[in-house]
User: Which sequence fits this backbone?
């Protein structure tokens, strides 16, 4: 009988932390590395060479047949990194196998995140990262035109298919799962604790079916099911659309507006539909890019929210600025950020676009038969689309199916595989998992952010239902991937908005062999704080609230509030930035760099409002949530301000002190 535990708010976080300090569960261990020169170690039957010196890793490769069935000649190298447990005087208590998503990303490319996530367990546990065939260290597929196109251009897909030939069907999840099992065999590792995120959860499901005896525990973070997945991805769009309403209702500044955020966004969609246009805007790295200002691009922007809280934070206010204040800059910037956010990079080692297409076309459900001709495939796709239009025209409301299908940079294109080759003789197109094969009775933890539109909470629950012994945890207010960026209790975080909640749950689950412990903290993670309103001029910003000792006038308090919004705007760009520098909404620049506890930002004449330039520094301690800013104001007024708040507080309040035009400021306002 299937058993799914849907964890709820019952106890305190301290319970989980206490539980996680208990004795480690007994498990089958990897053989301890033998004593050899520091440059190499022997693990099982493989000699590994020192690599990734900063992390103490060792690298290796094994050769695997390109075609497991033997019909095609050739081999593919499967590269991996092994990180021995730190307590060399004791045998390992187990091995953690982590797998990255995409499909197309390399697992070794996320080594820092995985090692930091599992740092508290690494005293007695080894960590193994294997790059799936066609990615990273495992002979990454390079189809140059497709990799550099920035879009899924049919001609580039066709050229890639021609380049790969019959091998186009040999990079799916099933052979990649068998490759990983072969690595475990070579290293003589019997069982692992598996952690996968995004496509790594799909991979984990396939691995669990094909190699159930190799698993001690399974953690699937931001999961979607290998069985029953819809080609229309309805639940993902529903999560994005409804997520804007949830975010608004949970944010005091948006909730105070009254009405519905979705109504305002729908009004924006109508305006763009009636009068589409073109514009330029800065992307997350400050590059000026051209965009279509229309309904399909708005869909892209909304659908990107599951991958970055910036879109949830800004869109409602950007819509109001565009519609009511004739201020298009916030919307244009957000659309430019969405376009760049969804563009793959040019390095196939970091992300192989060809591998992505290969897996999607071999594993994912499609609306046409893979062995049909291109002309017949297109007819089948058009018939399926017409049928969906007739039965459920509002599946993507407030957008039409046609608007969604013409959205730029769309990853889940239903026509993506029209130009992919038919499968070779003897290859039967199917999903990666076998509906006739049961999933193993292995303790499984499935995590979903409740506003994740990349892999929806509904898909996460459907994934949990596939496993006989599953615990499903839905995490409030988080987007895609919940644990790998949530390491603040233990070590300085690698990146995003750490909460100190989800990582302890994962660690407790692995340490105990299947007990998630108390998960109530997942319901107390602070909401996304939305922008109250964008403003062209500082005088249009609602003033901060004066506190004891304030001598500032109303105009000063508006400037103080605008300075706070400038700081918040920079912090929001962090989630859409890949290079460490960017530009202000209306001018100026900023840079940021990692510190021992988080990140430090430097602002140079940054303009969120046209008439207020803000310079200075912001220090974000991501291990505690504390944010402190020292800012200098020029333009509409001159002055210096110090701001401080804790980013983890549900309704955080920023304290503002300093002087503006010689008048003492002592005020507060909702944190940006």
Assistant:
């Amino acid at each position: 009988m299937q058993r799914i535990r849907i964890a709820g708010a019952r106890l305190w976080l301290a319970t989980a932390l206490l539980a996680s300090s208990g004795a480690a569960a007994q498990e089958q261990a990897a053989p301890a590395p033998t004593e050899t020169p520091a440059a190499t170690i022997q693990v099982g039957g493989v000699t590994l060479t020192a690599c990734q010196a900063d992390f103490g890793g060792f690298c290796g490769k094994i050769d695997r047949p390109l075609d497991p069935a033997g019909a095609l000649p050739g081999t593919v190298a499967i590269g991996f990194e092994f990180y021995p447990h730190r307590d060399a005087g004791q045998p390992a208590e187990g091995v953690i196998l982590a797998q990255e998503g995409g499909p197309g990303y390399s697992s070794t490319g996320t080594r820092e995140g995985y090692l930091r996530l599992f740092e508290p367990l690494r005293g007695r546990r080894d960590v193994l990262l294997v790059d799936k065939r066609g990615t990273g260290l495992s002979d990454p597929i390079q189809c140059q035109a497709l990799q550099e196109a920035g879009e899924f251009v049919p001609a580039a897909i066709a050229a890639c298919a021609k380049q790969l030939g019959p091998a186009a069907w040999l990079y799916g999840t099933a052979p990649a799962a068998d490759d990983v099992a072969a690595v475990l065999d070579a290293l003589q590792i019997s069982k692992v604790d598996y952690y996968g995120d995004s496509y790594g959860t799909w991979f984990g499901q396939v691995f669990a079916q094909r190699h159930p005896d190799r698993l001690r525990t399974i953690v699937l973070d931001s999961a979607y099911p290998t069985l029953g997945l819809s080609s229309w991805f309805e639940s993902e769009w529903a999560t994005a659309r409804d997520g804007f309403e949830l975010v608004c209702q949970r944010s005091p500044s948006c909730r105070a507006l009254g009405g519905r955020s979705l109504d305002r966004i729908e009004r924006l969609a109508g305006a763009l539909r009636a009068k589409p246009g073109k514009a330029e805007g800065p992307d997350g790295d400050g590059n000026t890019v051209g965009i279509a200002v229309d309904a399909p691009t708005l869909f892209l922007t909304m659908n990107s929210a599951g991958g970055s809280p910036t879109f949830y934070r800004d869109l409602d206010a950007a819509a109001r600025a565009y519609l009511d204040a004739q201020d298009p800059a916030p919307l244009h910037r957000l659309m430019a950020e969405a376009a760049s956010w969804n563009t793959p990079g040019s390095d196939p080692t970091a992300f192989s676009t060809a591998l992505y297409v290969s897996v999607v076309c071999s594993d994912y459900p499609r609306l046409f038969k893979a062995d049909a001709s291109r002309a017949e495939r297109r007819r089948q796709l058009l018939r399926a689309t017409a049928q969906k239009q007739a039965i459920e025209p509002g599946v993507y409301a407030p957008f039409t199916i046609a608007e969604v299908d013409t959205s730029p940079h769309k990853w889940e294109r239903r026509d993506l595989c029209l130009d992919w080759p038919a499968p070779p003789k003897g290859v039967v197109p199917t999903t990666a998992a076998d509906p006739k094969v049961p999933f193993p009775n292995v303790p499984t933890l499935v995590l979903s952010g409740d506003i994740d539109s990349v892999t929806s909470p509904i898909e996460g629950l459907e994934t949990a239902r596939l496993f006989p012994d599953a615990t499903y945890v839905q995490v409030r207010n988080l987007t895609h991937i919940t644990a790998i960026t949530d390491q603040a209790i233990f070590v300085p975080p690698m990146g995003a908005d750490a909460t100190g909640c989800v990582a302890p749950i994962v660690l407790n689950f692995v340490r105990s062999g299947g007990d998630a412990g108390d998960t109530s903290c997942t319901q107390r993670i602070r909401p996304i704080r939305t922008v109250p309103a964008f403003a062209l001029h500082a005088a249009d910003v609602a003033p901060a609230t004066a506190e004891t000792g304030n001598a500032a006038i109303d105009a000063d308090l508006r400037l103080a509030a605008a300075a706070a919004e400038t700081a918040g705007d920079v912090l929001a760009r962090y989630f859409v930035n890949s290079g460490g520098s960017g530009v202000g909404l209306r001018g100026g620049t900023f840079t940021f760099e990692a510190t021992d506890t988080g990140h430090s930002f430097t602002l140079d004449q940054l303009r969120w409002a046209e008439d207020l330039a803000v310079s200075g520094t912001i220090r974000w301690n991501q291990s505690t949530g504390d944010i402190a800013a020292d800012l200098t104001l020029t333009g509409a007024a001159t002055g210096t301000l110090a701001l401080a708040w804790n980013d983890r507080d549900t309704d955080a309040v920023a304290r503002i002190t300093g002087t503006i035009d010689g008048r003492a400021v002592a005020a507060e306002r909702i944190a940006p």
Remarks:
- Residues 224 and 459 are 5 Å apart (CA to CA).
- The radius of gyration is 26 Å.
